[in-house]
Amino acid sequence: MATQLVSETTWTFLLPDLLTICPYPLRVNPYLDDILRDVDKWLVEVGGLSDDRLEKSKAAKTALLGATFYADADAARLRVCADFLAWFVHVDDRFDDYDLRDARVLWQTCMRVFRDPNLQTEKSSALMEIQDFSIASAKPLAPVAPTGLFRGLDLYFSASEREIERRTQGNISDLESYIEYRRDTSGCKPSYAMIEYAAGVDLPDEVVSHPVIIAMEEAANDMIGWCNDIYSYNKEQAQGDIHNLVMILMCEQGLDLQSAMDEAGAHWHAALRRFEDNLSALPTWGPYVDQNVAIYLQGIRDMIVGTLHWSFDAPRYFGKEGQQVKKDRIVKLLPMKSLL
Questions:
Q1: H or E stretch including 331?
Q2: Of 87, 96, 33, 92, nearest in space to 62 by CA
Q3: pTM of the shown model
């Protein structure tokens, strides 16, 4: 049975002012211009993408995203990070089209390829493009990738499969469950591992497993996930996608669209406070390890603020209106599909 979540009289809504609240300055890697053309060329040569998917991948501006995420990386490592993000965004988009069977095959294929890009795997016509794309992205990473990259990717694929199952059944998650699995579908966990790769650091187990570090990673993950849900809401509701914090708040708490937007913004702000509170409780592990921890946490801050700006600077969510929306935060509601 269809449920209308937005009033027929709602034509616009106001985004929460996350950019003003965010205390971290935007930093952009100085090698961005050096890699832009190479990343687009790489997409053409190794992605094997159809024309429409190629244009969609270029429009994602993953080189820009990588340059804000990994602002201190040298040119060679930045290029690898940007290629990885291009692959990841493309895979994430493909999950929107896949059923459970295709998603499971994609998960198994990608994980095998990332662990061993030279492994001979059975070629599926449906996955030929994504397999070749995965091999090209994995080759420079496989010998040097932090363990967290593989663990993060595995969690991402597992959670994405569960999301497809919910979508197939027409189920909207409860808020508590959504928060948990959104931390895996956000893509933050493999991207955190790429901070270590980009900076050439290897955090010891006692740092990675420390409760304060874990709490800061979760808080940042929530900020990035909620930012994405807030900014992508208009596009997703128009496509009938029900897996979004704003929609869940409307359903679970009976909120109208603007109230749910405001509440989602409050969730983002609460996550920022958790991040800062835990930062003040950060222990010390000695000068050398502390320096690497500082580099890692700076990378997480760069991801938080970089996602905010990239969401407007790439046309993925707001099309050609991104800069205007960035300025006034007013979004024109797209025609929506009935949900459920």
A1: strand 330-332
A2: 87
A3: 0.90
